Amino acid sequence: xxxxxxxxxxxxxxxxxxxxxxxxxxxxxxxxxxxxxxxxxxxxxxxxxxxxxxxxxxxxxxxxxxxxxxxxxxxxxxxxxxxxxxxxxxxxxxxxxxxxxxxxxxxxxxxxxxxxxxxxxxxxxxxxxxxxxxxxxxxxxxxxxxxxxxxxxxxxxxxxxxxxxxxxxxxxxxxxxxxxxxxxxxxxxx
Length: 190
Fold this sequence. Notes:
Blueprint (H helix, E strand, L loop, with lengths): L5 E7 L5 H12 L2 E4 H15 L10 H22 L6 E4 L2 H7 L1 H9 L4 E8 L2 H10 L5 H6 L15 E4 L7 H13 L5
Parallel strand pairs: 1-3, 1-4, 2-3, 4-5
Helix pairs in contact: 1-8, 2-3, 3-5, 4-5
């Protein structure tokens, strides 16, 4: 076991299965889960109302530039602070998008933190992701549903990331979680 606290950055596109998979991975590595959807939906809605944007706030430049990057930086710092060498934290978020759109903010956020960060990238076929998003009843999913006609963005997979296909039956998630736990236990090569 490392002396550094472990923060697993569980990332993926909306509907890829991150939030559903996270508790399975948490059980496999004895970790806590922090999920941006659960922490930030209410503030996003409040900011949207204050700006007169409603739930469109996530797609508006003034939100992304003024608030979103800062919230995710705070979330990353919170996850790092919550992690201990004996008890990792899984931070569920669209981190790959954050890193692409705010590379300096991401690097700055990580620079002063003492945790070891490991990426786990959730993938899923678009038709399954779209079906999942349409079946949910969350306020912020209205924005995601509106963007389903667009092609999926091309995300850069961080060096050393572990990729997991979550387009399978949910019954397979515990087995996948233990496979990922074994990968996370291996020494980091990057």
